[in-house]
């Protein structure tokens, strides 16, 4: 592995760590790292005890450690200041979107509490309930059940599809009575 990528990554980490604000980094850096990792993994010879493979593995470990640390430092800055999101690479923005949603939801909940807005708090409760549902397809006939939400479900025939609370669906899926359908509620 040429030293240039390791050196570049090390320099980026030093600059990022020494600043309180997000620094601009090359938009292709994570892709470049991914390519290097893939190439290094594919280039390994059959003889794992070969000294070059040991060196290559150490360089790979260092590359991954520096990459992970750079991402941690940058995401830590976004956690402290969501306005920094514009300085992120596309890959980092993907990670940061959930952080941004967290910050918005947290702020909204605090404001609802501070202003006694129980309707907003109730909406949050309903959203969580909806998020805890899963769509399943029954693989065998199943009698009626009472869900954790105290709603009666069933009975079900083979191939029936329904939405159940995750707490009820999980044991059925594990026992092979039902199968989860992707894209659940």
Q: If you had to describe this structure to a student in words, what would you say it looks like?
A:
There is one protein chain. The protein is mainly alpha-helical and 185 residues long. The protein folds into two domains: 3-99, Methane Monooxygenase Hydroxylase, Chain G, domain 1; 132-180, Ribosomal Protein L9, domain 1 (3-Layer(aba) Sandwich), CATH 3.40.5. It is built from six helices and five strands, in the order H-H-H-H-H-E-E-E-E-H-E. The strands form two sheets. A three-stranded antiparallel beta sheet has the order 4-1-5. Helix 2 runs antiparallel to helix 3. The mean pLDDT is 85.
Please give a quick description of this structure.
It contains six helices and five strands. The model has no long low-confidence stretch (mean pLDDT 85). It has 185 residues and is mostly helical.
List keywords for this structure.
185 residues; mainly alpha; Methane Monooxygenase Hydroxylase, Chain G, domain 1; Ribosomal Protein L9, domain 1; 2 domains; three-stranded antiparallel β-sheet; two-stranded antiparallel ribbon; 5 strands; 59% helix; 10% strand; flat
Shape: flat
Provide the structure class: mainly alpha
**What gap, in angstroms, lies between the N and C termini?**
46 Å
Per CATH, which architecture of the largest domain? Up-down Bundle
Low-confidence stretches: none
Name the average pLDDT. Answer: 85
How many helical elements? 6
- What's the β-strand tally? 5
Tell me the number of structural domains. Answer: 2
Biggest β-sheet, characterized? Answer: 3 strands, antiparallel
CATH domain topology of the largest domain:
Methane Monooxygenase Hydroxylase, Chain G, domain 1
Query: Reading side by side through the largest sheet, how are the strands ordered?
Result: 4-1-5
